[in-house]
């Protein structure tokens, strides 16, 4: 057994052992612990848990990979996800915490006084969350198959079992404490290699500054200028220009990611785990700091990974790497099928250019960039092993949060809230665990037959949440008049038009993961790509809800009073748990 494998096993299984121990120590005994961790997690710890919940496989594995290949255009992910987080923390979380319920559909039910609204919210939530889980499962499979050198399917299976153990046993309480540990693992795993690589390339240990520094080879050339030169010499688009189909599309994409983020139920649920509204606000602040630690490093990781990859394949201009002499990491990734080489001109050398006919790197999966980065840069084995554990921590923590959101919406909102109001707490917990088990199986199956690459499916999840859940929460808090009928019509219109648009526009091609950022489509609505369409869906949602309320009449005086109450400052909504 080689040294790298040994380190990897220690890092990965050591961290799993830690998660299991925590889950056993923090297992849930009541529904309040299962859904909201008993409501007494401190803001600092909750901030860490939110950070882990937030930073999914898409943040850890895919985002820097997207930035590595999209260059400047990839910054929409940074702006959208971080901006959305701020929106959620300022506009939604404190009010919903004050209302004092466990789940998003329950809040919608109380505010709109409508069972239909609750059911529609559950459906929207499940559609968005399942789409999002596929991305996590792909991340788990990719990370496992690479580091344990097992088949992708087996890797996925191991990941499913791990999530099952701590999510089903511990509920929100187990998940929260596990996520705190996962945050520490993932942030350490992301920043340590970045510091090493930044030192190597620019002599600056702070990656955020390294990105804007000159290269360490004494040439006085800036890192980004060098990268622009390397990629344009090979016929690729310049790294530092906009390649997202114009500024309107970039704006729409950013907005979609922002409001989609603010409407994602698994993150909103985290705010129900703290003791008070004040604690909800401060845990939002802490989380922003914890998230920024990774998000400000990502552009540096992306750019440095791309430069290292290019330099490996073509160390000197015109001097390509001989395929037989390719490094170990190259062979390792070839085994997974995520990196493929075809010798088109028979010279035994690797040619990597933008021209389809001559390009011999027939497949470079974007999702490998972060995971392969430390190996490409020849970092020590323990650093490479750490990244494996970090990628898994990111994927598993988000998957667990999403599974909890799905299972609580079915057991708490559908079963207890609508179908069987007299359900005992013990049976509700049983159903919750059963639903979670079924969800894990479905998610695993979707991970085995994934629609497209991780960040692509994730972007779709944000579009769906943006078009359905976010507007209803906003109107619920900031407008007293919107009625249940309006809310139902708005949600259906918003998610309906968004799904229609996505599937009608080569939806199948988009979901199969072909490049959706290519040329402008002539029949795109104002040049807005399907991934960026969620914001239009949201506008439709608002408009329809207002129109239907105008026609059918405002919400009842009782509901208007309720909205007044949770907008009042102070700690009123505490006694609402029933």
- The CATH superfamily label reads Sodium/glucose cotransporter
Query: Helical content, roughly?
Result: over 70%
- Measured between the Cα atoms of the first and last residue, the distance is 56 Å
Beta-strand level of the residues, as a percent range? under 5%
Look at the helices and sheets and give the structural class: mainly alpha
The average pLDDT value, as a whole number, equals: 81
Task: Describe the 3D structure.
Helix content is 70%, strand content 1%. It has 578 residues and is mainly α. It has one domain (10-306, 379-576): Sodium/glucose cotransporter (Up-down Bundle). Strands 1-2 form a two-stranded antiparallel sheet. The longest helix has 51 residues, at 152-202. The N and C termini lie far apart (56 Å).
């Amino acid at each position: 057994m080689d040294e790298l494998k040994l380190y990897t096993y220690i890092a990965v299984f050591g961290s799993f052992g830690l998660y299991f121990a925590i889950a056993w120590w923090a297992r849930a005994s009541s529904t309040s612990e299962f859904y909201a961790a008993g409501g007494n997690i401190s803001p600092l710890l909750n901030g860490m848990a939110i950070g882990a919940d937030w930073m999914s496989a898409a943040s850890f594995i895919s985002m820097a990979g997207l930035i590595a290949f999209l260059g400047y255009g990839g910054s929409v992910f940074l702006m959208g996800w971080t901006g959305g987080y701020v929106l959620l923390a300022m506009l939604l979380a404190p009010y919903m915490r004050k209302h004092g319920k466990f789940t998003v559909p329950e809040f919608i039910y109380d505010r709109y006084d409508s069972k239909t609204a609750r059911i529609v919210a559950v459906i929207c939530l499940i559609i968005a969350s399942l789409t999002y889980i596929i991305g996590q499962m792909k991340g788990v499979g990719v990370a496992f198959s690479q580091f344990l050198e097992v088949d992708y399917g087996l890797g996925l299976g191991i990941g499913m079992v791990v999530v099952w153990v701590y999510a089903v046993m511990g509920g929100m309480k187990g998940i929260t404490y596990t996520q705190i540990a996962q945050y520490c693992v993932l942030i350490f795993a992301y920043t340590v290699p970045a510091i090493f690589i930044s030192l190597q390339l620019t002599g600056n240990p702070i990656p955020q500054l390294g990105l804007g520094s000159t290269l360490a080879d004494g040439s006085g050339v800036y890192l980004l200028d060098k990268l622009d030169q390397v990629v344009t010499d090979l016929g690729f688009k310049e790294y530092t220009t906009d390649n997202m189909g114009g500024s309107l599309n970039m704006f729409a994409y950013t907005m979609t990611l922002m409001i989609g983020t603010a409407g994602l139920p698994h993150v909103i649920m985290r705010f129900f785990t703290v003791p008070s509204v004040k604690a909800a606000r401060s845990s939002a602040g802490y989380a922003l700091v914890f998230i920024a630690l990774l998000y400000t490093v990502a552009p540096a990781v992306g750019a440095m990974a791309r430069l290292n990859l290019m330099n490996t394949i073509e160390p000197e201009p015109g001097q390509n790497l001989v395929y037989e002499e390719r490094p170990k990491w190259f062979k390792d990734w070839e085994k997974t099928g995520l990196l493929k080489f075809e010798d088109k001109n028979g010279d035994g050398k690797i040619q990597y250019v933008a021209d389809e006919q001559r390009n011999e790197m027939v497949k470079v999966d974007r999702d490998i960039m972060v995971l392969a980065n430390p190996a490409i840069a020849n970092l020590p084995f323990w650093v490479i092993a750490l990244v494996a554990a970090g990628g898994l921590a990111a994927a598993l923590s988000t998957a667990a949060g999403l599974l909890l959101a799905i299972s609580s919406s079915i057991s708490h909102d559908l079963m207890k809230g609508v179908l069987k109001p007299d359900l005992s707490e013990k049976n509700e917990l049983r159903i919750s665990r059963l639903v979670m088990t079924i969800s894990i199986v479905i998610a695993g199956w979707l991970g085995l037959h994934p629609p497209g690459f991780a960040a692509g499916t994730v972007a779709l999840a944000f579009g769906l949440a943006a078009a359905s859940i976010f507007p209803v929460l906003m109107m619920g808090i900031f407008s007293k008049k919107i009625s249940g009928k309006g809310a139902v019509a708005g949600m259906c219109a918003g998610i309906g038009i968004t799904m229609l648009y996505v599937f009608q526009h080569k939806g199948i091609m988009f979901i199969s993961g072909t490049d959706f950022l290519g040329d402008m489509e002539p029949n795109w609505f104002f040049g807005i790509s399907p991934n960026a369409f969620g914001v239009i869906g949201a506008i439709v949602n608002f408009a329809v809800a207002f129109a239907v309320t105008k026609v059918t009449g405002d919400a009842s005086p009782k509901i208007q009073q309720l909205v007044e109450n949770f907008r009042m400052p102070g700690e009123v909504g505490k006694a609402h748990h029933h």
